[in-house]
Design goal:
single chain; alpha+beta
Length: about 120
């Protein structure tokens, strides 16, 4: 499940305003699904597979808005990413108590990587 084109407009606030654009949405698609909605649709589609499934998810705006020096867009993208994390946490809490989380980040020549296998513990909020 993915968006066919960008769902965000990662430009400076001033440029977006001059073009009549908001942070998210494109002409012809003014209200694209959020990353949380795309994840929910994906989980609904793949979670019944008896062989299991693998999901890769990114809220690309969290990378692109900061690159455009758009603080308000960065905050909006972060809130959208947080909502998707909530969908994933709810799925893990209610459907599948075993999961693997991975992350990798390369920003300005620095690397951060990790892999962890987690059973869902009672302390999980």
């Amino acid at each position: 499940m993915f968006a066919w084109t960008d769902t965000y407009n990662a430009s400076a606030d001033e440029l977006l305003e001059s073009r009549g654009l908001s942070f998210y949405g494109q002409p012809g698609n003014p209200n694209p699904p959020t990353v949380a909605e795309m994840l929910q649709a994906t989980l609904t589609s793949v979670s019944s597979d008896p062989d299991g499934f693998f999901v890769v998810l990114e809220e690309e705006g969290t990378d692109n808005f900061p690159n455009a020096n758009n603080a308000a867009g960065t905050i909006e993208a972060t809130l959208r990413a947080d909502a998707a994390i909530g969908v994933a946490m709810e799925f893990v809490r209610n459907q599948d108590p075993q999961y693997i989380s991975t992350h990798r980040c390369r920003q300005r020549g620095r690397w951060l990587a990790g892999v962890a296998t987690h059973p869902l513990c009672p302390r999980f909020p």
